[in-house]
Amino acid sequence: MRLYASAPPHRPTTRLPLVLAAVLLLVGGLVLALPDRAGAAADSLISQGRPATSSSVEDSTFGPEKAFDGIATTRWASTEGVDPQWIKVDLGPSATVSRVKLVWEVAYAKTYRVEISADGSTWTRLATETAGNGGTDDWTGLTGTGRYLRVYGTARGTSYGYSLYTVEVYGTTSTTPPPGGAFTVVAAGDIAAQCTASSSSCAHPKTAALAQRIAPSFYLTMGDNQYDDALLSDFRAYYDKTWGAFKAKTRPVPGNHETYDPAGPLAGYKSYFGAIAYPQGKPYYSYDQGNWHFVALDSNSFDDAAQIQWLKDDLARNTKGCVAAYFHHPLYSSGGHGNDPVSKPVWQILYGAKADLVLNGHDHHYERFAPQDPSGRATADGIVEIVGGMGGAEPYDIETVQPNSQKRISGPYGVLKLDLTDTTYTWQYVGTDDQVKDSGPTYTCH
Q1: Is 76's pLDDT higher than 60?
Q2: What is the CATH number of the domain that holds 228?
Q3: Which segments constitute the F5/8 type C domain (predicted)?
């Protein structure tokens, strides 16, 4: 049990004289009032309640957020019998770390590393344990700066997995975005089925809770926000009770289900979201964050000459170094709907403007593709497409695997966690059990 990582406590070999012992008892109250180490008063706890992810969980009751909830009896637990495993916290937007305190359950790590990262991809080691024996490990005197901190276990101390009651990170945080303009976005499509949290099988309350735990700069939706016909009454009864909690920070686009409203195509969608979905007076719009230009499109009307001309003009005006577009219908998909050629003309415009990333829904699964051109040819200067249609609607099976498809997951509900900087992007598909189901490569913007 490590109490002081930088200098183990001295254990005296002789008993204190009785007089000295009495004096210590008299000032005991003062001793108890002192911090548990010299200089601790300068530290602040910066990890409590922050978004957390992990390599795995034993089950949904042992999610990674339990290690950061400030409750001594709750804990994170990984899958049993597998090395390595990790737990990670987003301290965002940037932090300087001086101390990390770990309280292990019986399932402890014999060897592990404490690491810090600015982007969640490149890690710097802060501390290394090679002979852990559980209990409490209190790493002090650390010096590290970054957004993400993780505990990376490489060898278990028992036949179980890894389990932590508490991960406490101390230091200072800044409200100023770190160099590189790093920020996080949560994205999902095909979200609110006509059900509520009273039903254990209802998924959109769970994906909404996950999205909130990640605490991104903002949220994207890739259409089919409300099933089945996207009535305003249904938006209020279902979507608003879950994803509506962060409506003001959401940048939505419509899907085909938003066109089924008997009151008129997109009528309920427009009434519910208002100017959030129509900031420029149309169901398509653009905005900037850091060095990124985001283009939100209505793929129900890709035959609308006005939208196509607007897209060309918008991209011609763009001065940002990275470009992401999102709309409902994917050009390429291995799911039940398959490829949708309605999106090809838009892809050609985006490709000509050196766009980097396209996000879609429509097919109810997760899928990522290698960079490709509008004709489906793999190329380093191509567009990376991600299908993220697992926001809450019933999953679709994978049917015909498309060329350049690198990973496909159908079944587990979840969201995309996109980590972007001024020059790069990467992402994770995170399930509602807080387990990372897939991690994308780190790409450099064109």
Answers
A1: yes
A2: 3.60.21.10
A3: 33-172
